[in-house]
Amino acid sequence: MKKGENSFVTAATALEIILEKVTIVDSETLGIDDAFGRIVAEDICAVANVPPFDNSAMDGFALRSEDTTNATKKQPVRFRVVSELRAGSVIGDQGVAPMTAIRIMTGAPVPVGADSVIPVEDTETDSDGSVKIFQRLRAHENVRFAGEDMRTGETVLERGMKLGSAEIGLLAAVNRDTVTVYRKPRVAIISTGDEIGEVGAELRPGQIRNSNAHTLRCEVEKYGGIPTYIGIARDEPEATRDVFTRALEHDIIISTGGVSLGEYDFVQDVVESLGLKIAVHGLRIKPGRPMTFGAMGDTIFFGLPGNPVSTMVTFMQFVRPALLKMGGARRIGKPEIPAVIEDSITKRPGRREYIRGSYTTKGGRVVVSTTGPQGSGILRSMSRANCLIIVPEDVSEYKPGDVVVIQLIHHEEIM
């Protein structure tokens, strides 16, 4: 049974309900070269110190720092060069004695007796092979210590972290050629309505292009899911049921349109007949008020509004965090920062609004302005936005110069 507006919930309540229903998917093992961008499903520990030995951070000369105490530009201290150590070489019996130095390359092991390295550019080599030092060195200067990066047994990657370039490098550094990651959630995408026409097809009078399916495919891929476009459910109960039945094998079902209170809005009735229990029907937000959410076992369903901006906003606020949690991510929030607004905003109290905005920095502060008309069908204003200006339920007006909270759209995900 469809419900009226008095049963609508806040954005915070809806997100709490949704995340409580999300079950994390199972895992799989991949080679590290295939694991970029995935969410790690195990804690990774170092099996040895990295680096495994004290080594030089510079090309230069290894010596005893105490021998440089009196070194200045006007009165350099001369050292006898007794040997050379290249990266990859093994320390022999030759060590550093008082007033001697060993030529050393970056990454080479620090020889016995030495406690610092002087960069080659801060020295001068004489014709007899000795080297002049022009400055006093501190103990351990330009030395990288064994275990400085990672120590044996230390956890270097935690379950739920996203594997970026540096993290893949860490796996290689601890000699891992495979890693256990969460599999990508399978996401079914359905469009609804006789008024929808596919890209490339000839539109009948009264039809519009199906932009939502393509937008959602990109968003699902962006946040770690595998999208499958099921097709358009036409405005007839059995046709709608057939399309949704084909989507049930997926982890997440996303439909657009058909969730309002109109005579031909069949989606809620159909998904309930298939066993999905509706937990949210209607939100105190704009845009996106009619959004519906339900679940059956490990499968969750989002019925998003059909207007393109409503589709994107509700995806970002509700589907995105659910998709990230299902995929094993431990941090799922979008960055929110304060900004000074340059426009006036007014709204009806009692609901949260997400205003498309564009932020930049001026005079050392973040400023934001709206991207123009805010109609839920104006997708171009979303294309121009790099943030959403969040107007809370209890706020009815912002004036130029007020501090607002903006939610970033384009950013490196925090995980």
Structure description:
By secondary structure, this protein is an alpha/beta fold. Helix content is 18%, strand content 31%. The chain has helices spanning 11-21, 165-173, 212-222, 237-247, 267-273, 308-326, 379-383; strands at 27-31, 44-45, 55-56, 60-63, 77-85, 100-104, 116-119, 123-125, 131-133, 143-144, 155-157, 178-182, 186-192, 196-197, 208-209, 226-233, 252-256, 277-281, 285-286, 292-296, 299-304, 336-341, 345-346, 352-362, 365-370, 387-391, 397-398, 403-408. A hairpin with a 5-residue loop joins strand 8 (123-125) and strand 9. Helix 1 packs across helix 6 and helix 3 runs parallel beside helix 6 (308-326). The longest helix has 19 residues, at 308-326. The radius of gyration is 31 Å and the shape is elongated. The relative contact order is 0.13.
Strands side by side in the biggest sheet: 7-4-6-5-9-8
Overall 3D shape: elongated
- Binned, the helix content reads 10-25%
Quaternary organisation of the protein chains: single chain
Tell me, rounded to a whole number, the average pLDDT. 93
Main pleated-sheet profile: 6 strands, mixed
The number of helical runs is 7
Sheet-strand content, in percent, reads 25-35%
Number of extended strands: 28
| Rg, alpha carbons | 31 Å
> Span from first to last CA?
39 Å
Q: Which blocks of ≥5 consecutive residues have pLDDT under 50? A: none
- Structural category is alpha/beta
